[in-house]
TrEMBL record:
GO cellular component: nucleus
Stretches assigned to the MJ1316 RNA cyclic group end recognition domain: 1136-1210
Enzyme category, top tier: transferase
Organism of provenance: Decorospora gaudefroyi
EC number of this enzyme: 2.7.7.19
Protein name (database record): polynucleotide adenylyltransferase
Region span, Disordered: 1093-1133
Length: 1235
């Protein structure tokens, strides 16, 4: 009751000021979920607290003291001391304002008798005004626009808020204040409070204006985002500490059947040896009403074996989807911990954004939200305290950051992404400097060079933005982060991509967003130009605690009744990592790739950095085949395939009359061929080599009318080879008998090296090796397009410099392939994506300073340990391939040849570092030299820079041009031995052979006659000045002896030299005597070989293969285990295992010592001789090579008694190595081989 002496009506005060407000402020503890939404959607966030306005506008600021007094007194009279005002806001609503909707929480029932309405009426009356009905509410935010989707989306968020219930004990009076400075802002400050009833134990706001702190951070943050200038980052601890918000981790409580907040006791010690991380963008629905038809498919994808992980990072998660996901029983069992509980649970609030990041895990964790100073964007940084903890390194546990960067390929979007990466790395460096990191999610960084180049050409992005894309990759690498896909891809540990790699541009390998093969991606793409992009990544900073293992994609589209079924527009990615307790546990592979064989990353200077300039220069030099040349080779290969296999479908051996497969290998298969390249073909079948070549000859002869001709039969180191001409295209054909390989051809690319199908004879493995190596190279190269471009660049350089010819001891295609692939893979492992120009620059720098004398070139990702290769004194350069048998592809290299290569590598490295250098200048002119000779610049320089020349003249006047071609090839193969002899006899000379023939006759006349004259030139230059004439005379005498011995060897070779049809001479020539020469471009034509017999004369070939009575009587070839183990019983009661098998067994079996064995062989002049097994030469180009059919026996050196024991002998058919022939047992225990 009011006292009798008080006036009956309060003094009227006008309420027209928008600078003041009378409101109710809910307790802070009740507003966590509300403020999460307000921060993103309410324009008043940071200026107003969450509040319910009772009177707004309110009184003028100068009237506040009187208004406060009147309301306090009036409420004291009309609200009893025990009367309570309880607020219950459980109804979400909205009203339209201009072009947007305001979404709020209000009372479920609006009536004049509600506590809130009653309190407002009394407050209005206290100011001398009449009460009017009002919709009292707490604002959640404003919709983005006035569309139905925008309104309903925010309303749905508000409906997911837990019911707001609290008791009012205090009314708050707010007064508007304004900041000063260049960009002034206003905010509402707490002016005073008015207590209501029994408010002693009820929360009331203080004068701290706690809601204003966000305003300052947001303002500075927005300025940083909008400027996006690459200034030096200052310490941002204060900013991070203000903005980073800790989150609550939930676990599924089976007893209460609900998701509950973790209190710390739910975790347990983790003793895992490996951990698996998955990332998946589930594609949020942006239509209204949202459809949920993909939800079951998404859940089944997440639960698939290919996606199963210990930690799963999800992007674009909506409230409805996470509720659906976490209601699944199997999901709850596999992932009992989550960063966000389902909003469908009454006590859980909604997710903050439309597209949210969620981490679910089988291990407990704690997490924080790290903002990127842009609405709806940030990182979820989780720490797993029970994983990767280490007292020695002070690591407090594995850190996993989930990200979803800004989408788009525009200047602004790329700048924003760059800022976001910079912010996240800065935060991790500041707060988790010792811990291993994993950053997983949708990076939205365009990777396709086609997309980026097109955007630059269309001017949709600036050149600065193009550079920013590269700088982001550099920033990732500089932070010590490894791309899990790249690392696994380099090691061949990634599963096959969903994208066909046949027509991919650089940066499209391993794509996770593929509009060409994913219908959902095709419907959502806006900036990818319909090209595949590798948006989704898993980045790892190992810190000696993690070792990246396997990697795979999941969520790949499937066809069901002709309809593509796919859950998302993105494919998921997953990687498995080994947990290393300490550095000593690192595997051999990890040690190799991390500590051995380093490659320095050398970036191209500005004038060389554009790959398109390199490509243009290569095009000018005809290094790219045109469409006509491409079609011509495709037709030639198809024709040869049809002729040999007797079928049109070369990929299906079942369609051939004899099960066989024909595949290209070499440069053609790798896609680096040029117009002058031939096609290397490998046929794999179920019949013997002898039978195959008989069959092939018959079929090739019959196909002569179709343009197929046999040019020559060659006995190569890998066996018989046919040189062919098919429709004018040069082709080499080899055969490998491997029945089990043919049977499992459809899966050959996925068969591991240890599979029993590769238990083949060594010769078969050697023939199959190029194709197996090719598969591995294509599978593991980080970027095949960049590799191809860099390859062509290096090949053109080698051609120009006279260094492209493996038979002369220089570089060949396989050399460049293996040397460049290691550079590409190593740089990708250490520095991420690398373009072709940087590959070339790094290639020349690395090999210019390579220690060839003590090191070998090999792939440390394939060879987990340093390969066991015993290099001989005649192997100055060792370049190893991949699969067994291990062999040096640079076995023809010579010391003078390597010296010249190193010299040229260094010159190229220096030239590419010169300021202003261009690719056009580097490659030189396209036309011939300006002199009267028809010489290209490189050959002209060769003739000008040497003081004298050794001239090897070849004259031929025979009737058969095929023999003329054979003569030239034979002399050519012997020239390298002359180079070696000169170097050894005269080490003071620089010796260099030009890898092409010279001639002094016109090509037009020469092509029309059987007479031929040409020569090879070996340039000689002094390394040091010769002081006396006596030294010169002695050197001249030594040189003459070398030349005389060489020409004598040639002329006494009855097999290749016929004095009736040819003449060979070697002489010393002065520079003036060679100035009139030109390069021999004579077209030898398709001269067919003499087809009297194509049977295999090589005894080794016959012994390795089984003779078949008919082609349909197929019998698999005998198998030698990959890690040889002797058999307990003879393989045959009569047939003796060939000497080659015994030789390889004794040489490569790790349990045997080759130095303990002796080989007895038949010398053509001296009879039976003996030599150590380690000294035996198997390469036909080696001067000491002896055919293996001359091997008589193998002996094992004796012990103390000195007696040697025969372990294999051809004459007596004894075989104590394998037990074949008449030798029914193995070598006795203790004598070398196990029984």
């Amino acid at each position: 009751m009011a006292s009798a002496d008080q006036p009956s009506h309060p003094v009227r005060i006008s309420t027209t000021s928008y600078d003041t407000a009378l409101c109710i402020i809910p307790p802070i503890s009740h507003c966590t979920h509300i403020d999460q939404l307000r921060e993103l959607y309410d324009k008043a966030y940071g200026r107003w607290p969450p509040h319910i306005n009772l009177i707004y506008p309110f009184v003028a600021p100068e009237s506040l003291p009187q208004a406060q007094h009147q309301i306090r007194e009036y409420l004291a009279q009309h609200v009893g001391p025990t009367e309570t005002v309880d607020v219950d806001l459980s109804q979400a609503g909205c009203f339209k304002q201009k072009s947007k909707y305001t979404v709020f929480l209000g009372e479920s029932r609006i009536s004049s008798t509600s506590p809130l309405q009653s309190l407002r009426t009394k407050s209005v009356e206290a100011l001398g005004q009449g009460g009017a009905p009002s919709t009292l509410h707490l604002t959640i935010g404003q919709s983005q626009d006035n569309t139905v989707f925008s309104r309903e989306f925010l309303l749905a968020k508000a409906r997911h808020l837990p019911v707001l219930q609290f008791r009012v004990g205090t009314l708050a009076i707010l007064l508007r204040k304004r900041t000063t400075g260049a960009d002034p802002k206003d905010y509402m400050s707490l002016y005073g409070t008015i207590d209501i009833g029994a408010s002693q134990d009820i929360w009331s706001p203080d004068a701290s204006d706690y809601w204003v702190g966000s305003l300052v951070s947001n303002v500075s943050g927005l300025q940083l985002e909008e400027g996006d200038e690459d200034h030096t980052v200052k310490p941002e601890a204060s900013v991070y500490d203000q903005e980073v918000q800790p989150g609550s981790t939930f676990y599924f409580d089976e007893e209460q059947d609900k998701w509950s907040i973790c209190r710390g006791e739910e975790g347990s010690d983790i003793d895992a040896k490996a951990i698996t991380i998955s990332s998946y963008n589930v594609l949020v629905d942006t239509e209204y009403p949202p459809t949920h038809d993909r939800d079951p498919l998404l859940v089944s994808t997440i639960l698939a074996d290919s996606a199963m992980a210990d930690i799963l990072v999800l992007q674009e998660v909506s409230d409805d989807f996470i509720s659906y996901l976490l209601e699944d029983v199997e999901v709850r069992r596999r992932y009992p911990f989550t960063s966000h509980a389902p909003p469908s649970q009454p006590d859980v609030g909604p997710l903050p954004s439309l597209r949210n990041i969620v981490i679910i895990s089988s291990y407990p964790f704690n997490w924080k939200s790290v903002p990127f100073y842009r609405k709806h964007k940030g990182a979820l940084v989780a720490q797993f305290g029970d994983i990767c903890t280490s007292s020695s390194s002070s690591s407090t546990g594995l850190v996993v950051a989930g990200v979803h960067l800004t989408a788009g390929l525009t200047d602004g979007a790329v700048a924003t992404k760059k800022s976001q990466i910079k912010s996240l790395i800065g935060y991790l460096r500041q707060h988790h400097v010792k811990e291993p990191w994993i950053i997983a999610g949708d990076f939205n960084i365009a990777t396709s060079t086609y997309t980026i180049t097109t955007a630059l050409k269309n001017k949709s992005i600036s050149s600065e933005t193009g550079a920013a894309l590269s700088s982001m990759e550099a920033a990732i690498s500089d932070a010590g982060l490894l791309d899990a896909w790249s690392v696994a891809h380099l090691e061949g540990a990634d599963e096959t991509d969903a994208t066909d790699s046949a027509e991919l541009f650089e940066g499209e390998e391993g794509a996770t967003f593929d509009p060409q093969n994913n219908r959902l991606a095709a419907g959502t793409t806006t900036t990818s130009h319909d090209r595949p992009q590798r948006y989704d990544r898993i980045l790892v900073r190992p810190q000696d605690a993690l070792c990246i293992g396997r990697f795979n994609h999941f969520g790949i589209p499937e066809l069901l009744d002709g309809l593509q079924i796919v859950g998302s527009d993105h494919y998921g990615v997953r990687t498995t990592m080994q947990l290393l307790k300490n550095v000593a546990e690192k595997t051999g592979a990890d040690i190799n790739t991390s500590e051995q064989l380093p490659v320095e990353y050398r970036r191209a200077i500005t004038t060389l950095a554009d790959s398109s300039d390199m490509s243009s220069s290569l095009t000018a030099h005809d290094m790219f085949p045109d469409e006509e040349q491409t079609e011509r080779r495709q037709n030639a290969f198809a024709l040869l395939n049809q002729v040999i296999l007797g079928a049109s479908n070369f990929m299906d051996p079942g369609l051939s009359d004899i099960p066989m497969i024909m595949v290209p290998v070499g440069s053609y298969a790798l896609g680096v061929w040029t117009a002058e390249s031939d096609i290397d073909c490998l046929c794999i079948g179920t019949i013997s080599s002898k039978t195959f070549f008989k069959l092939a000859r018959q079929r090739l002869v019959k196909a002569e009318s179709q343009g197929v001709r046999i040019l020559r039969k060659v006995q190569a180191s890998t066996g018989t080879m046919l040189e062919l001409s098919v429709k004018g295209v040069a082709m080499d054909l080899q055969y490998c008998p491997a029945a089990r390989v043919v049977e499992r051809w459809s899966e050959i690319s996925h068969v591991p090296a240890s599979d029993p199908i590769f238990n083949l004879p060594v010769l078969s493995l050697r023939k199959l090796k190029p194709y197996r190596d090719l598969l591995y190279i294509r599978r593991t190269l980080p970027s095949l397009p960049a590799f191809r471009l860099a390859y062509r660049c290096i090949k053109l350089w080698a051609l120009k410099r006279g260094l492209y010819s493996s038979k002369f001891g220089y570089l060949g295609g396989v050399h460049i392939t293996l040397m460049l692939s290691w550079i590409a893979k190593r740089l990708a492992h250490d520095h991420g994506s690398t373009n072709a120009t940087d590959l070339v620059i790094s290639f020349f720098h690395h090999y210019a300073h390579f220690d060839w004398a003590n090191e070998m070139v090999y792939d440390a990702f394939f060879h987990k340990k340093k390969p066991r290769y015993h290099r001989s004194a005649r192997e100055p350069m060792v370049v190893l391939g991949f699969h067994a048998p291990n062999s040096n592809v640079a076995h023809t290299a010579t010391v003078p040849g390597l010296q010249m290569l190193t010299k040229e590598f260094k010159a190229a490295d220096e030239q590419l570092s010169e300021p202003g250098m261009s690719w056009k200048t580097f490659f030189g002119t396209i036309s011939a030299s300006s002199s009267d000779t028809k010489l290209p610049p490189g050959a002209a320089v060769f003739l000008d820079t040497h003081s004298s020349f050794v001239k090897v003249d070849i004259n031929f006047w025979g009737r058969t041009l095929a023999k003329g071609k054979g003569l030239v090839g034979w002399v050519e193969s012997r020239c390298i031995s002359l180079v070696v002899d000169i170097h050894q006899g005269l080490p003071g000379l620089e010796v260099r052979i030009w890898p092409a023939r010279f001639t002094d006759s016109g090509t037009s006349d020469a092509d029309n006659t059987n007479d031929y004259h040409g020569c090879y030139l070996i340039g000689l230059s002094r390394r040091a000045k010769v002081d006396t004439s006596d030294n010169k005379v002695l050197a001249k005498q030594d040189l003459d002896k070398i030349l005389e011995r060489f020409v004598t060897q040639l002329r006494t070779d009855e097999k290749n030299y016929d004095a009736n049809t040819c003449w060979i001479d070697v002489s010393l020539a002065k520079p003036v005597e060679v100035q009139g020469l030109s390069l021999d471009d004579r077209e030898w034509g398709d001269y067919a070989m003499d087809l009297d017999s194509v049977s295999d004369s090589d005894e080794e070939e016959e012994e390795l293969d089984s003779d078949l009575e008919a082609t349909d009587a197929v019998k698999p070839p005998r198998a030698i285990p990959q890690r040889p183990k002797p058999t307990s019983t003879p393989l045959s009661a009569t047939k003796l295992r060939p000497a080659s098998d015994v030789l390889n067994r004794l040489r490569w079996d790790p349990s045997l010592d080759p130095s303990e064995y002796i080989i007895g062989y038949e010398d053509r002049f001296l009879g039976a001789r003996e030599t150590g097994l380690e000294k035996w030469k198997t390469e036909q180009t080696d001067e000491e090579f002896i055919p293996q059919h001359r091997i008589l026996y193998f002996k094992k050196k004796g012990g103390n008694d000195g007696d040697a024991e025969i372990v294999w002998e051809r004459a007596t058919r004894i075989d104590r190595v394998f037990g074949s022939g008449l030798g029914a047992g193995g070598v006795r225990a203790g004598k070398g081989l196990r029984c």
